What does this fold into?
Amino acid sequence: MIRSLAQARQILGVDRDQVKFWASAFRNYLGRSANPNAGQSREFTDSDMLVLMHVAMYWEDNPDIESICIRLNCEEHIDNELYRRILYEHTPILQEPSPNLDETWKGGVFLNGGGVNEYLALARSYREAADTLLDSALQSGEPRDWAYPVLFAYRHTLELYLKIIGEVQERTHSLERCVYLVERRLDQKIGTPIRNWIIELDRIDPAGTAFRFAEDEVGTLRNAEYWVDFHHLKHAMKLAFQALDEASLQMKIREI
It folds into this structure.
């Protein structure tokens, strides 16, 4: 994130002149925008702020600048948990994109109004997230604590797959309705047992709310008990998404 002089001053807890002095004295550790040409505004990157926080930490009435430089040369400031925490506490979640970031940067994501362009890419992302949740649940030894997030993630993924493949325009969360629309577009039934598994999830969660809240709005789970074997669920969902991927491929081939 790029910060102005005023923002840097607020984080560091000093006045503007002190920030300017530090920026000049330790310019070799800062980016060019921290000491810009005349007429340009000072701007500080996150890396710059870590340097300045380190300087502020060891600044005294009679500072040992050489000692501070030695610490900076050892890069003590880069992975300092305290500095990172302070920086994060002055950082919004939704930030303006930095010009220093490119497609090789792996620490976050760019959000824009374009959404996800690749066919089924969003659904597959949810599928991967669901698989990861389920694996973590099994490894934890306490899958009960993961049940609702896992089931919601898979149900939502199924809904996305079906709506994309079936080109569903209706405002519905019904998996059964989506299955019907996919089958109508494919002009064939989704095979068993995959179709049955999808319908099962729809019967206990027809509105897509059963696993989203502590209280089921529709009430389908209030007076019933079910056992869900997570090993079986993993197998079932793998087969279901393989079948839906094949159905997607069929539709793309027909369109060629």
Residues 3-89 form a domain with the Multidrug-efflux Transporter Regulator; Chain: A; Domain 2 fold (CATH 1.10.1660). The CA atoms of residues 133 and 139 lie 10 Å apart. The mean pLDDT is 89. The radius of gyration is 27 Å.
